[in-house]
TrEMBL record:
InterPro entries: FTHF_cligase (IPR002698), FTHF_cligase-like_sf (IPR024185), NagB/RpiA_transferase-like (IPR037171). Pfam families: 5-FTHF_cyc-lig (PF01812). The lineage of its organism: Bacteria, Pseudomonadati, Pseudomonadota, Gammaproteobacteria, Vibrionales. Its EC number is 6.3.3.2. This is 5-formyltetrahydrofolate cyclo-ligase.
Length: 194
């Protein structure tokens, strides 16, 4: 039986939503340690992250550690008039937040806080699942595929890094022509590189 992308999404989301709160908390701390040891992170000053939702590995320990080390953190905001695209806004403890159409918290749109995606050093991408070849299965909106397309074509610009729980790995995913594979995915126990 061949599984569809939707089957994979449902199965993996169910798997990660069954993780206990204590496990989630520890996974977030472990992921933070793995991420901070990456060679591309040490010199990076402008790092795009995201706030965890729907059982995603907890990014708050990492965000707080990056703040402590004086790095700038940015969060994705759904572009108000360019359908399917993201903007990245500077994020601090005091950023006013709003819920987007998916009920995910994002910084309130303020043009003075926007950074062009090409000026970021690292873009951390959420994902539902990933496979042994670095293919990423997102939620299906294509936001990150569009954001990462220039990097995929030229190899220039911010370095994409996927973040996930170990249980989100599968051997092989069904892929589409527009899918952007990731060069690196970090889980609480491992750094996957291609």
């Amino acid at each position: 039986m061949k599984f569809s992308r939707q089957d994979f999404r449902q199965s993996i989301r169910q798997r990660r939503n069954q993780l206990s709160e204590g496990f989630q908390h520890q996974a977030g701390r472990d992921l933070c340690q793995q991420f901070l040891s990456l060679p591309e992170v040490k010199p990076a000053q402008h790092i795009a992250l995201y706030l965890s939702a729907d059982g995603e590995v907890d990014t708050m320990p990492l965000i707080e550690e990056l703040w402590r080390s004086g790095k700038h953190v940015y969060l994705p905001v759904i572009h108000p008039f360019s359908k399917g695209h993201l903007l990245f806004l500077h994020y601090t403890k005091h950023s006013p937040m709003v819920l987007n159409k998916y009920q995910i918290a994002e910084p309130k749109l303020d043009q003075t806080q926007i950074i062009p995606a090409q000026s970021l050093d690292v873009i951390c991408t959420p994902l539902v699942g990933f496979d042994s070849a670095g293919h990423r299965l997102g939620m299906g909106g294509g936001y990150y595929d569009r954001t990462l397309a220039p990097w995929f074509k030229t190899g220039q610009g911010p370095k994409p890094i996927g973040l996930a729980h170990d249980c989100q790995h599968v051997d092989a995913l069904p892929i589409e022509s527009w899918d952007i594979p990731l060069p690196k995915i970090v889980t609480p126990t491992k750094v996957w590189q291609w």
